[in-house]
User: What shape does this take?
Amino acid sequence: MDNTSRRHPLRRSRQDVEAARHIPDTPQTRSPAYRLAFNDPDFLCREELRPVRLQLELLKPEMLMEAYGVESTVVLFGGARIPEPANKDKARTRTLAELSKYYDEAREFARLMTLRSNQNGHREDVIMTGGGPGVMEAGNRGAQDAGGVSIGLNIVLPHEQSPNEYVTPDLCFNFHYFAVRKMHFLMRAKALAVFPGGFGTLDELFETLTLIQTGRMAQIPVLLFGEEFWRKIVNWEALADAGTISADDLELFRFVETAQEAIDTIDTWENVGEKREIIPGR
Assistant: This one.
């Protein structure tokens, strides 16, 4: 629901912003000090305003997704460098070329999930990705293949990153803070599909597993696509053998290879549908 049409007796902030465009041009009105605080980018970007910016990054996507009607999401994590199979000959490494098959699996997984989402009016099971290239593009593309919508959470990086062309425009968000972005990935998450990736993918995966392990988040299906890849880069059993995690923690995730296997695993996962809540700062 759009609150901008709600009636109240107070003058609206937008009216003051518009009025400020027509004030007399004087040394006083040209001074940055005269700008309305909420309409002053230089002021909002000051170091002291970081708490306000954090709150704004939390609120804006939350409010817009709520207005759109999104109630639950299926999140895809994975490498930005994994190419579409048609372009695997251009991959930086032989391994990336071999991993290109997961582009198609991510696309198909997103397509199948979005067919379900279409049936509930795009309220549940909405595909959410990081909005960039590689596996993220495949997820948003699969949702478009199914005639549905999808969410993209972009992040401002030193090397320019722009949203892929398949993200639903009204659900395409941009972030400055990684921490707030990761919170949005999980606040509505009903399942998590993790494809081969790099540091970013590992960061997102292990933060999720930590939240579930410590009871800060209720258990949801966590699916790791590509058992060979994941066992090669992480010695999961060594962690349990060392006692740094418990043996039960190895049950927090499952290995899958195909989109259909992932769907079947979600459908048979215990605790699916249990209410989840992340409570920051408590």
